[in-house]
Amino acid sequence: MNISDNQKAKIQKAFVTAHAGREQPPANAAWKADVMRALRRTALTESSSGITLFMNRHLWQLVPAACALILVLSVILVNLDVSLDYELAQGFMADPVAFRAEQFWGI
Amino acid sequence: MAHNSDKGHDSEIIRRVIDGEVDAFGHLVMKYGDYVMGIVKNHLPYSEVEETAQEVFLKAYQSLPSLKDGARFRPWLASIAVRTCYDYWRAQYRSREVPLSALTEKHREWLETVMTDNSADAFRSQGLRTEARELLDWALEKLSPEERIVLELVYLEERSVKEAAQLLGWSSANVKVRSYRARKKLHRVLSTVAARGGRA
Fold this sequence. Notes:
- The structure holds two protein chains of two kinds.
- Chain A is mainly α.
- Chain A has helices spanning 5-20, 29-48, 50-58, 63-80, 84-94, 96-105.
- The longest helix of chain A has 20 residues, at 29-48.
- Chain B is mainly alpha-helical.
- Chain B has two domains: 2-94, Orthogonal Bundle (Rna Polymerase Sigma Factor, Chain: A), CATH 1.10.1740; 105-196, Winged helix-like DNA-binding domain superfamily/Winged helix DNA-binding domain (Arc Repressor Mutant, subunit A).
- In chain B, α2 packs across α3 (46-63) and α5 crosses α7.
- The longest helix of chain B is centred in the last third of the chain and has 25 residues, at 172-196.
- In chain B, 33% of the residues are buried.
- The A-B interface holds A 1-3, 7-8, 10-19, 21-27, 31-32, 34-36, 38-40, 42-43, 57 and B 22-23, 25-26, 29-30, 33-34, 36-38, 41-42, 46, 49-50, 53-54, 57-58, 61-62, 65, 111, 114-115, 117, 122-124, 126-129, 132-133, 136, 152, 155-158, 187, 190-192, 194-195.
């Protein structure tokens, strides 16, 4: 059975009335006290993990400083003209035994 | 003017709560308790309203630092309430705990009366009858959680697509499409009731 547009409109009006008339429990004092009790429990749990919370909230603020530090260190390293491979090869060629001992035993 | 100072008052309370004064949140619970209950009762069974409204305030408390503008607390809270109701139905559908109520001859008769009655006040008086709510709940059970929440907001509460989209955090196009499909499905379900007596 097809429902006409006119009938659809009538059904909607009746349903809107039915929907609006749904019963609502009152937000009474007992309910509010329950909400606040649950809230305080939550707040207590949150404060026990306060350090984690602090880190989560504030650690990201250190990101620009960390980026700047990385940039400065990179510039310094480039300007020092250090070539690690070359230094290692030179050490090995000059005194292989001492170099080996240094590698293995840290002497 | 009073409305603005009211919003300013909310912002002040929110600032205090964020600074660690948990009890200050009690003012917001007092002020918006009935408002949240009013939203939740439109979407959930009566027995679930109090507990879900409590859940809404807990979520609001936990997300309070993410609220950019304290003066927008009321619509922000409404959005949390609607999404919590949507989450409730999604969980119910996942665990398949949606009770499928049965229809009787009374419901079919009610539908026929509404469709054929021409008096101006008939829709209102018919809508107040128990059969109207029972038939509506039965039909809503046939929809998916997405269709259900959209239909309730747009078709039953007569909110605009834009408003429903803001409450749900969906795009307007998404709400429009889902609303269209939900209406179509509702009418299909109702037409089977009208034709066969609704023992689906």
